[in-house]
Amino acid sequence: WNEIIELFRAGMPLRKHRCRFKSYERCFKASEAVDCLHELLGSNQNFGPEVTRDQTVKLLKKFLKNHVIEDIKGRWGKEDFEDDGHLYRFPPSSPLKSYPKKPSCGKEVIKFPDWNEPKAGTSQEHIPVKSVTMNSEMWYKRHSIAIGEVPACKLVFRRELTQTNIEEIWKSMTLSRLQKVLGLDSLDEVLDTKLVISKHIVQNVYNVNKQGIVTLEDRSKELPHWILSAMKCLANWPSCSDLKQPTYSGFERDVFKTIVDYFGQMKEPLLTFHFFDVFVSVLGLLQKPSKAVEALQISCLLLPPENRKRLQLLVRMMARISLNQDLPPLSESVRTRTLMVQAFSRCILCSKDEIDLDELLAAKLVSFLMDNYQEILSVPSALKSSIEDHVVHLQRVQIKYAGADSDATLPPPSFCHQISTDELEYQRATGSQEPLAALLEEIVMNKEISVKDKKKKLKQFQKSYPEVYRVRFPTPETEAMLFPEKTKQKSPILMWALKKPFQPFHRTRSFRM
């Protein structure tokens, strides 16, 4: 308060103005005061360029009410200041009063001086009579601060955040939110956080075009032009601007095979081997679609930018092809949607060990991706806003009161606590078993596949995840109940033969006459 008043009084130009055929010395227009104070606040480190002109007018209203300024007729005390041509001036006496010496931030408090109490060794007779008695109420009006005891405080100037600092904040808060959405005590059971590159997260959030597609800094990592043309051709069929050559019967199938071959030759899936367990753990949330969408939103932010862009373009093409009624069938025996899932599941998600069961996990996840791709592959707005607000808070000058060890506007930090080895193993097991158990139950309840295929898939599951399988089928009897043996009916001819009485065989002799 005092600092701004001093700056304003020192920086405000004063000159002669005329109003209603009368001249006034050393005064200023209201609009000139707004211009000057707005510029001062914008260049002040405690306020900054975010201060608006309307906020400046509100502050000048406070100045008029507390007699920091007055109109040319000496009137003040109301907040009727407007951004116009009315004339104002500074009062003859300074509105500033000396503050008591500011103690160090401890338990002491600054006490208001009692203006009515005489100093020791003086008497009321020797005190000169003043026209206005300065009491605590007037002091409050002049300086607009609370009456009573105000805790000692100091300004805390934050160090400037570097780009590396901001990227680490993004990584920390993004992983913290992912852990909360997945409902895990620790991400260590599904992810090595050291492999998460903070720069990738920031690039995926801010380096995007109008459609939300990632723009790459390294052009060499872009998809080849001919693949992009092929994908656009099928995604926008039959109105494809890139299609300049005449088509032939089966043309669209050849284009589709070209796209499948390109993505099929990749050495690593788009969701990468490192993040396989993270995406598999999301399968346990598919019963709660909103949670699953948020978990996939955050998980896809961890991908390298080139992987995220290819995933965005590929899944968008798959979804459009599945819904395009004008596109001729790409297969005689398989529906288009099923064909999309079968053709691209492995290039989107698979583990490094290439377990046969990964195909089922990937198919389930890819189907959910196709249904919700617009939301999943966009930047989560709530997460972005919370991180940006936190960064701005860290860069802003703060007021720290005595006895406050941390900022009151921030929640207290959470700390890790040590757990036993047995508890860690339990968390690791339960965290990854839930989606696998759900997948096993889906195989068991699937009535569309044949008994032979179901037995084959169950054997694969038992071989890959014996512990999860043992929980579902603890005894051979429970497993046998899934495939009850059918009683074999004997053929009617055989039954008729058995009903005949036993007739001994009679050898006949022939005699020649």
Automatic annotation (TrEMBL):
GO biological process: intracellular signal transduction; positive regulation of Wnt signaling pathway
Keywords annotated in UniProt: GTPase activation
Gene symbol of the encoding locus: Depdc1b
Descriptive protein name: DEP domain-containing protein 1B
Organism lineage: Eukaryota, Metazoa, Chordata, Craniata, Vertebrata
Pfam families: DEP, RhoGAP
UniProt-listed InterPro entries: DEP_dom, Rho_GTPase_activation_prot, RhoGAP_dom, WH-like_DNA-bd_sf, WH_DNA-bd_sf
Record-linked Gene3D superfamilies: Rho GTPase activation protein (1.10.555.10), Winged helix-like DNA-binding domain superfamily/Winged helix DNA-binding domain (1.10.10.10)
PANTHER family cross-referenced by the UniProt entry: DEP DOMAIN-CONTAINING, DEP DOMAIN-CONTAINING PROTEIN 1B
GO function terms (MF aspect): GTPase activator activity
PROSITE patterns: RHOGAP
Annotated ranges, domain Rho-GAP: 185-377
